[in-house]
């Protein structure tokens, strides 16, 4: 006679085995249908597809990767200085300086760190100062906001023959890395024994097609803009180096620098960063994501006002507001979408307390900005500033310091601010820079590499 306890146990075990088999089959089915297995190698990704067939998808190869493929030969036997930071990495996220030094083929005698420092530890407007790198033992010099004789003296002191520049730009004129590069080009060109400047190219993360915004006028030149390029330039850092050297360096140094740009492989102008297959390394603490980089090209302009641009929050340049703003701002901006003034953007009413920077410790009301495909962050930011100024005249102010408006330094001229003060619409603001773009695009075209 069958023991009831044994029968029950057998039934439970059978059920468990059947359930396990079903679960295994389900998991395997989902694997085949949905598998996205990423294997990052030096040259490519392998990606599982919807039908389970694995195919190879090429990565964009940065200038750093291309230089390593040459076994560092252009640097062999030279005293090399490396102008870089934490973004100067391979696809596997190993740092270029670490790999080059470990190869035994490159003699790196100095590293030069821009804003935020070589390893990226410093906040906005700061650097790391002189140090000896803990990993490599290489001396690291701070070159943030240094130019002219200060840079020339550093290059002479270290006796560099080649200066490698490997920095990830974000596609906006007021991001400081491109002006560190410009100052290095001028300094090197002005030296009796000029070192070669070798720029390792990297993608423009917000694509290389779109060119927008006003030109910088000379009276508004600062470290967030030295020369007349458009606010959104649509160029890679290597292309900018060629433009700077071809158009502006000789004016200051008497001759152009010895420039070599190591081009990328596989990059196309229409690519957003996600299409490159590369991992995003935040180039600065307040650009933690590609979405932040896209928003930055427009919402950095809020730095020229007394409104918070989201520094001190987890969503810098995507969450903006002030203590004197209320929910009416969200309603007004959604109305601009309904009227067709804005498109490809959504707004969420948001409340936040910045932990540092403007409005630190104060409860702010404003909007979280959701930029969608084909959005125009510069237009959205200008519409937001117009709404803030019109709706909250008692609270809104332009930042005014040392006889200039910071907003003018960011836009590159006073016309945009003055037009906003006069009640101009977004379309009227955009019309102000169209003639500028004709001139800039004609100049820009001579230096494009892709």
From TrEMBL:
Domain (Peptidoglycan beta-N-acetylmuramidase NamZ C-terminal): residue spans on this chain: 295-450
Gene Ontology molecular function, alphabetical: peptidoglycan beta-N-acetylmuramidase activity
A Pfam family of this chain: NamZ_C
Keyword Signal in annotation: yes
Stretches assigned to the Peptidoglycan beta-N-acetylmuramidase NamZ N-terminal domain: 80-290
Keyword Transmembrane helix attributed: no
Keywords associated with the record: Signal
Signal peptide interval: 1-23
Domain of life of the organism encoding this protein: Eukaryota
Name this protein carries in UniProt: DUF1343 domain-containing protein
The organism of origin for this protein: Picocystis salinarum
């Amino acid at each position: 006679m069958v023991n009831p306890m044994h029968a029950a146990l057998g039934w439970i075990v059978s059920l468990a085995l059947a359930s396990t088999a079903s679960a295994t089959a389900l998991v395997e089915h989902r694997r085949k249908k949905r598998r996205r297995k990423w294997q990052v190698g030096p040259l490519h990704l392998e990606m599982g597809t919807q039908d389970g067939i694995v195919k190879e998808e090429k990565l964009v190869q940065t200038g750093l990767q291309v230089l390593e493929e040459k076994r560092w030969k252009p640097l062999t036997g030279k005293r090399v200085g490396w102008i870089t930071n934490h973004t100067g990495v391979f696809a596997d996220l190993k740092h270029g300086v670490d790999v080059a030094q470990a190869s035994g083929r490159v003699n790196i005698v100095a590293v030069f760190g821009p804003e935020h420092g070589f390893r990226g530890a410093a906040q906005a407007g700061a650097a790391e100062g002189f140090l000896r790198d803990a990993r490599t033992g290489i001396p690291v010099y701070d070159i943030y906001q240094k130019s002219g004789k200060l840079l020339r003296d550093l290059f002479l002191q270290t006796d560099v023959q080649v200066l490698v520049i490997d920095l990830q730009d974000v596609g906006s004129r007021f991001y400081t890395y491109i002006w560190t590069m410009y100052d290095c080009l001028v300094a090197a060109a002005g030296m009796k024994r000029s070192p070669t400047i070798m720029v390792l190219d990297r993608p423009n993360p917000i694509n290389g097609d779109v060119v927008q915004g006003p030109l910088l006028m000379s009276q508004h030149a600062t470290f967030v803009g030295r020369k007349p390029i458009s606010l959104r330039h649509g160029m890679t850092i290597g292309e900018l180096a060629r433009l700077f050297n071809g158009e502006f360096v000789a004016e200051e140094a008497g001759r152009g620098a010895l420039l070599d740009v190591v081009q990328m492989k596989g990059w196309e102008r229409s690519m957003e960063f996600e299409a490159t297959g590369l991992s995003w390394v935040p180039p600065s603490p307040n650009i933690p994501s590609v979405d932040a980089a896209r928003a930055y090209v427009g919402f950095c302009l809020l730095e020229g006002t007394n409104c918070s641009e989201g520094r001190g929050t987890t969503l810098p340049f995507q969450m903006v507001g002030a203590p004197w703003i209320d929910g009416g701002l969200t309603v007004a901006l959604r109305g601009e979408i309904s009227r067709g003034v804005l498109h490809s953007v959504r707004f969420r009413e948001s409340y936040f307390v910045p932990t540092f920077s403007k409005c630190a410790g104060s409860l702010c009301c404003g909007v979280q900005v959701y930029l969608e495909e084909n959005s125009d962050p510069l237009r959205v930011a200008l519409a937001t500033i117009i709404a803030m100024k019109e709706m909250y005249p008692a609270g809104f102010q332009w930042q005014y310091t040392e006889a200039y408006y910071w907003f003018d330094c960011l836009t590159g001229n006073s016309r945009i601010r003055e037009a906003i003060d006069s009640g101009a619409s977004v379309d009227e603001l955009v019309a102000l820079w169209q003639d500028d773009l004709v001139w800039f695009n004609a100049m820009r075209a001579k230096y494009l590499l892709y």
